Amino acid sequence: MRLLRWLIALALIGGGVFWVLTRPAPVPPEYASLTGDAERGALVFAVAGCASCHIAPGAEPSDAPVLAGGERFVSDFGTFLAPNISPSSQGIGDWTDAEIMHAVAAGVSPGGAHYYPAFPYTSYHFAEPQDLADLVAHLRTLPPSDVESLPHEIGFPVTIRRGIGLWKMLYLSEDWTVAGAADAQIERGRYLVEGLGHCAECHTPRDALGGLDRSAWMAGAPNPSGEGRVPAITPGELGWSAADIAYYLETGFTPDFDVAGGDMADVVLNTGKLPPEDREAIAAYLVALP
Amino acid sequence: MIRSPLTLMTAAALALLGPLAVSAQDEEALQRAIDARQAHMQLYAHNLGILGGMARGNIPYDAAMASAAAADLGHLTRVSQQAYWPEGSDIMMEGSNALPAIWENLDDVFAKSGDLVEAVAAMEAVAGDGLEAVQGQMQALGGACVACHRDYQQEN
Question: Do A253 and B48 touch (CB under 8 A)?
């Protein structure tokens, strides 16, 4: 009996520790004081590639996409379905600006639940609060959709959202992967690549728990959307000059004048909207990778 | 030799599927079509490389050369592609990255190839007018290519 009592006590303590450790972070108070600029937000929206995942399956890219959701992302942990994030009551229309910003940067819902990391908040986490505010202002200008978000197709124990709190402790890092940036251009590139652009989410392999293996940064990975591999984009493997990369991100043309296809097509259509300095910054960061 | 029920079932299934399988002759015809259209794409890339090389500053701008490359792109858009795309010449074939979705969305494919014709015509119209004019059309041209490759080419 005494043993049982101890076990129950331990379980309660363990449960308590779990409960405390896995608590979703609160909304940073500074968010409420920011005002977004929708026009600047269009560029943040393009870099972050929100539409690539949140438009309906089969929908065409557009400057004013309907972010109705519904795209399916098959993973080792189940199939995740992109939700409606259009400005409607089925989407994010009723959320406050700060709630949307917090969802993007911390992966926490307005109701205080963790989101699954199919949503690349481990990258968006690096976004500057003002960029987040601008992004929200832009999201509110997009057409609404009344399509209902569909539930993820996942099983136990993935269904326990509190577990994502532990996952975040392991993988939601405050630190850049490339610690030093040699100059302001590479620093800007790092912000765009490691942060908003979330390039590593596809170009870096994952470990058994689905976290990015930062020791193999941009070393290529199995293609999450099907067969084949997402290529390595380290300078040694890719072998493109900074000018090659910047031109690809502008026009979609590789150095051999082949063309971006598949998921990268969406990326180049987005990066084509950026000011040239940003594409050059991304390129400068990538060619400076080890 | 004792066959397991599973092997027997597999054999039965194969026998049923047999008549549906592509014959070696058909397969050769599909392969020829794939080779032909990939050669066609190479010619696009070659001429885009001339214009893009100038746009990028890798080769000096030459109005006559730019106009000729743009005109060649125009000729290429007018080549009939009818025999290039037999149904079945998709990713199931060695060396093809064409998604079967092409044959399920022919209206969209034609609409997108129409956009390419327009983008090429716009380049043709200005290719001789100077480097800036060429530079100004490359993104639109790339976008027209990307639009189709986005939906109908498997990433490799």
Answer: yes
Pick the residue from chain A with its C-alpha nearest to B105.
Answer: A58
Q: What is the pLDDT of residue A1?
A: 65
Question: Which residues of chain A have a CB within 8 Å of the CB of B48?
Answer: 253, 257
ipTM confidence: 0.88
Query: For position A3, what pLDDT does the model report?
Result: 78
**Comparing C-alpha atoms, which of A125, A133, A129 is closest to residue A106?**
A125
Start and end residues for every CATH 1.10.760.10 domain found in chain A? 25-170
List the single residue in A247, A263, A269 with the smallest CB-CB distance to B155: A263
Residues A173/A122, Cβ–Cβ less than 8 Å: yes
Query: Right CATH number for B26-152 from 1.20.120.10, 2.30.40.10, 3.30.70.270, 1.25.40.10?
Result: 1.20.120.10
Domain boundaries, chain B: 26-152
In CATH terms, is domain A184-287 a member of 1.10.150?
Answer: no
Using a CB-CB cut-off of 8 Å, the residues of chain B touching A262 are: 149-150, 153-155
- Would you say residue B22 has pLDDT above 90? no
Is the pLDDT at B16 greater than 70, yes or no?
Answer: no
Q: How many whole angstroms separate alpha carbon B111 and alpha carbon B128?
A: 28
Contacts of A64 (CB under 8 A, 6+ apart): A141, A142, A143
